[in-house]
Amino acid sequence: MKKQHYYLQILFLIICLITAQNKTFAQAKNTVSGKVVDETGQSIPGANVSLKDKGKNVITDENGHYIFTDVIAGNYFVEATNVGYKTYKKEISVKEGESVTADLLLETESQSLKEVVVTGSSAPRSKLESSVAITTMGAKAIEDRAPSSTAALLQTIPGFVVEASGGEIGNNLFARGIPSAGAYEYVQIQEDGLPVFEDGALQFANADTFYRLDETVSKMEAVRGGSASIFANNAPGGIINFISKTGQNDFQGRAKFTTSDYGMFRTDLNLSGALIQDKLFFNVGGFYRTDNGVRNTGFTANKGGQIKGNITYKFDDNDYLRINFKHLDDRNTFYLPIPLKSNNGKVEGIPGFNPNYGTLTSVNLSHLNVPQYGGGTFSADLEDGSHPIINSIGAEFKKKISEKVTFKNAFKQTSIDLNYNAIFPNGGPWTQEAYATGVQNTTASNLTYSYVDNGETLDQNALIMRADLWHIEKKMSNFANNFSFSFDLDPVKLTAGYYYSNWKSNQYWNWNSYLVGVSDNPRLLNVTDNTTGVQHTWNGVERITWLERDAQTKGLLNDIYADAEIKATDKLTFNAGLRYNKDKYSGYRDNARFFAEDLGILDNNTADDAVTTVKGNPYTYWRYDVSEWSYTAAGNYKFNDNMASYVRYSHGFRSPIEESFYDNAADLSKLENTEVNQFELGYKYSNSFFSVNANLFHMNLKNVAFTDILSDGSSENKFADVNNIGLEVETNARYKFAKLNFTFTVQKPEYDNFTGTNADGSTFDFNGNTARRIPKFFCNLRPEVDITKDFTAYVQFSYYDKKFTNQDNKQVLPAYKEVGAGLNYTYNNLRFAVDASNLFNEIGLTEGDPRQTTSAASDVFMARPILGRAFRFSVAINF
Question: Where is the signal peptide (predicted)?
């Protein structure tokens, strides 16, 4: 409650300050105002309205209204644009002392190719003239999708396989069939053009852990492949850029309340306006949320919020200075694989464990206190979950130096304190006989299992397993600066820039194994050998600090880049880009004594016999330099105002990831950058009824790293090549009261040069196998119907083809589908909505257990399914 009051007090003070400021300004006599509507008469919020020749721009409010004040008498053109609509222009005449009303009618286009995009390019350009595969989504479209997390929204993008089964954070994205250990290894998530953190694939620090969707978001732009390596580091798979709302002359506000069938209480607020008319603008907003989570943990699963905003000062000629800030303090439960079984190929839950709502993360495992090597006690709180505290501040400056030259600079300083706690399955499920013989080297009759909380004996037919509490602390910081000069040398537009970034991540790990009975909300078990009296657990902890790690990774990036856009003819445009990375990575790692220490403080107990410790050991210091070129070339041909096609070749790379540095710190000679070569052929078409964006691509990757942490604490530490050929298609259609969005991807990602020897001496040959966790086909279908002008219904259907857990392609994750649906109703300035996900409680497996190296001695297996059916209800008001 204290944190909730903190956020509400700050937002209240902001409202008071803004209201006081706005009261000081009187409205000028000469005004131009009106409403922007579509063919049905429905208002269009968020449309851009320009008063041509005067450089004035405003955004329509949630009722579609706009207003220009202090307009000098004269003749003007008023122009309205919005995503999915044709541009509309109207001539008006303003007389002294007159208020002019000009309502503007926008005709729908299924997906306008005239929409201007800024991501993955040196200058704003229309989709029609862009030679990249890009998906965009405005604030209204994002709200209509009702995503439960950032990852859930990204599932709508073709070419991106997104696993959103982990909950609100910590999810995985695989771009164009590139296999990885997870996270956002080949894609960069940006906020207003700069990364949320420079590397989005640090261990247990996935990029979506540091970003939340709320009412401050204006638009999402997602580039796949193409020019991404020119405009972002370690991002040959793409760039996902979330663009924030900024202020305008008129004061606008939006408040939203959301609840759910899993105990959600969420409030969102966004406010924007002018502190000085036509000069100084603000936008500020945020959210506070608490809920129990779709999977039942027995405690509050998600709790926290953020405050985010910007202040913009506009100079003449549309130059500006913008200062932005963000404070995020949010904790989330992270869900991992659960026990399941197969019944003639159909995945089912096991008795006592609900596959849609059950989880090994339980209130019964919340508080860990264990003795440590050298004295003292280690403590961890599972209920704190993945808990980042983020503070960032930055600025953006744009100045037109001359008619031909424009200068732009943006920087951001980010500090992150991440406290991470989650339950990972790490052995089993076992029958009691399998555990006795395979783990404790005795017979089943010699062991007695009892619950820690009440001493009752475990049913002899019940399964048992290890459920580890993995605790990770990360102290992270990042300063990034990007400046560039743009030259308008008609017919060539040239941009040259310099990017600097330094970042640091210090981390400490302490992992402990619980022994639990396999069930929803599992309970801790104690195990005693009744023949010798030896205990194998201590308060339910079977292995005390079996893994401890202390390490640091730092990056220092000094990169130069250039991008040229050449308009050869009115129809033909060429693009070429070049980037040179001169980067340095350094750090240290512990030399822990693995499973080597016997604490000797627990009498007649094996739980403290094999402790791992970093104390008393030296550290290994390492350094790795990167000197790499990335380059791209493309041509775009515009057949007419509705159709274009492009061809592009690009070469990019990904530096070794954090785990590779740790594993190979003593000898980095085996490490190489992952080289990514892509060829793309794109086609774009749109009219007022239908649009299609199709992209045929071929990817060749050299030296892809596989670095999953296994059950025994080691890393895979393997490398291979990957080839993939695929087709991404995004279509939109609209006819009268009905809309249809359909996206699909078909691909064939396969391993090459993937042979070798395992740690146990056995050999492997994975050449020709399908890349793990990547389906060959997946699609999204979304029909939407306007029942009335104000009442809309939709259905969201997703399908994912079968895929494989590991490189050997032995464990198959079957194909699955997921269906969602929703209704929304608008009444004046109110919007009511109900949204449902996984309506039919499908058990769709997004991953197996990549940490498990051997199968359990039972017919039960571990995998992570999508979240069960859930309903959310919301009401929003615009003012």
Answer: 1-28
